Amino acid sequence: MTLLRAASGAALFFFALCRPLDAEDVTLTSRDGEVELSGTLLGFDGEFYRIDTIYGELTVDGSGVTCDGPACPSLQDFVAEIRISGAASMGSVMLPALIETFAQRNGYSVTRETRDASHRVYELKDTNTDRTVARFFFRLTNTDEGFADLLANEADIVMASREVRPDEVQRASEAGMGDVSDARRARVLALDAIVPIVASDNPVRSVSPGDLARVFAGDIRNWSALGGPDAPISLYGPDAASGLSQAFQHLVMDRSDLDQTSEIKRYSLGEDLVQAVAADPFALGIASFAETGRARVLALEGGCGRNLVAGRQTIKTEDYPFTAPMFLYRPARRLPRTGREFMAFATSSAAQLVIRRSGFVDQSPELATLDVQGNRLANAIGAAGPEISLQDLQRMVSVLGPRKRLTTSFRFEAGSARLDAQSRSNIVQLAEALERGTYDSGELLFVGFSDGNGPALANQSISLRRAEAVRRAVLDAAETFDRDRTILEVDAFGEAMPVACDSSDWGRLINRRVEVWVR
Questions:
Q1: Per-residue pLDDT tens over the stretch 281-318
Q2: Which terminus of the chain has fewer CB atoms gathered within 10 Å of its CB, N or C?
């Protein structure tokens, strides 16, 4: 019999505490009575004990031992307790909707208890036995607080509206939680975007990212500078500690080398912010695409006349530049079985409809034919010139015309060969789809595009290398994929089909991309 499944401090990486048990001495004895361990019980997840012994911290399979001592938990009446902390925008609607659907699929009933503005408890009961099987404890604050709770061992899962920072990764590793940025620990649950919003009767319809940054830095103070009335601009934004505000600083303000002014009216809840903007005719706010209410979203304009509007498809493809993936993070330790089953459901394709209905952008791939992408073709024609010939455009149309474009796209971090967070998640999802046989007997074409800076031949070469790199990354992730079942090829068209204006850093960034076309 194998009594010990892990030993020493490494055991912590694969074991999740539920609510910490009072530290008391227990004795674990093998079923045949030949092996006995005594120590302080540190935790129990319904299947495994973790005890502190003279040999260090050990994890022991509960099915192979009996437990003696006042702290011994009941194996039959165990209730899984999972603590989730972080972004209120995720925990208010989306996660509860996923819990409700997960419960229905597994024959559980759900009751909700609201303890205060930021604390809720969802209790799941077996409908046949009326036995409580799990409790999900929510603390709804912001992303910073979520990671702080994780590091304090007061959360098992973090809801984050931004990517984990390097210092948070380091502190989690030092605390024995493993690499929380690893793909096995961090999953993009849904997609969102940062959008500028105004009252419905505001005459301004669009704003450039550069002007948006200058407004929120306090450098532009009057609507007349944006083509509106001669009136002062009132600024509204999310709480400074929220992931949305931090993502806005990173994606918009930092690219203009500016900081947000202290004159912004801040709101902890997105719905309160949107209501305030909708009621103020001179307001300009920064909000989540999932929470715009009665306010109107402004398009992003470029100097070449191309405007970008946030929508489900443009967010999925990252053609809209200010996308904001919504993450679930957890340390490298075991969750109770119900918690593991919930996480598997929440990150599955079956959960995507629930996510979409809750107001966020799901990650289910969608297909679009070339002939319904008039704006993109118009951009291609407009970008043609001495280096992009009619023959180049004809080749692009002949290659892409018989195919359909997936909304699964790949983009790289600014000034880096590293894929951005949404694209890294797309690698995993596309690899899983290949392993499931979704594209069996078909063909996937990875198509590279570039910005317009530099010679066309060099841009063609760069975009082809990017397409090849993405193809390799997908194949590396699809470990069980039979390569004889689906054809995976690469092609590139350089600067031939821009999405945005090349006159700005953000425009060039989103023009550098790899798309996937299916036949």
A1: 999 999 999 999 999 999 999 877 778 899 998 999 88
A2: N
pLDDT mean over 378-393 = 75
* Torsion sign, CA atoms 301, 302, 307, 313: negative
Q: What is the pLDDT of residues 59-105, one digit of tens each?
A: 898 888 999 998 888 777 789 999 999 999 899 999 999 999 999 99
The residue whose two tokens read 């959360």 is 155
Strand partners, 43: 50
Sequence-separated (6 or more) residues with CB below 8 Å from residue 77: 131
For the segment 198-241, what is each residue's pLDDT rounded down to a tens digit? 999 999 999 999 999 999 999 999 999 999 999 999 999 999 98
The answer to whether the beta carbons of residues 90 and 75 sit under 8 Å apart is: no
Tokens of 73: 């938990």
- Residue 243's CB is within 10 A of a number of other CB atoms, namely 29
Cα distance between residue 437 and residue 420, in whole Å: 26
Which phi and psi angles does 27 have, rounded to 5°? -125, 125
Q: How far apart are CA 459 and CA 397, in angstroms?
A: 19
How far is Cα 430 from Cα 424, in angstroms, rounded to an integer?
Answer: 10
Sheet order of strands, 206-207 included: 206-207, 299-301, 307-308
Q: In what order do the strands lie in the sheet with 56-61?
A: 4-7, 56-61, 48-53, 36-44, 25-30, 65-68
Distances in Å between the Cα of 392 and the Cα atoms of 369, 447, 489 are 19, 14, 19
0.90 exceeded by the pTM?
A: no
Cβ–Cβ contacts within 10 Å for residue 165, how many? 14
Residue 502 and residue 459: Cα distance in Å, rounded? 13
Q: Please check whether residue 328 is in contact with residue 367, taking contact to mean a CB–CB distance below 8 angstroms.
A: no
Tokens matching residue 197: 């919003």
Rounded to an integer, what is the distance from CA 186 to the centroid of its chain?
8
**Angstrom distance (rounded) from CA 409 to CA 267:** 33
Question: Mean pLDDT score of the chain, rounded to an integer?
Answer: 89
Report how far residue 21's alpha carbon sits from residue 12's, in angstroms, rounded to the nearest whole number. Answer: 15
Provide the pLDDT for residue 373: 66
Quick check: 186 and 327 in contact, CB under 8 A? yes
Q: Which residues contact 116 (CB under 8 A, 6 or more apart)?
A: none
What count of other Cβ atoms lies within 10 Å of the Cβ of residue 415?
A: 8
Residue 455 in 3-state DSSP? coil
431-448: b (≥16 Cβ within 10 Å) or e: bbbbeeeebeeeebbbbb
Looking at the predicted structure, is the pLDDT value of residue 55 above 90? Answer: no
Closest CA to 336 of 132, 197, 511: 132
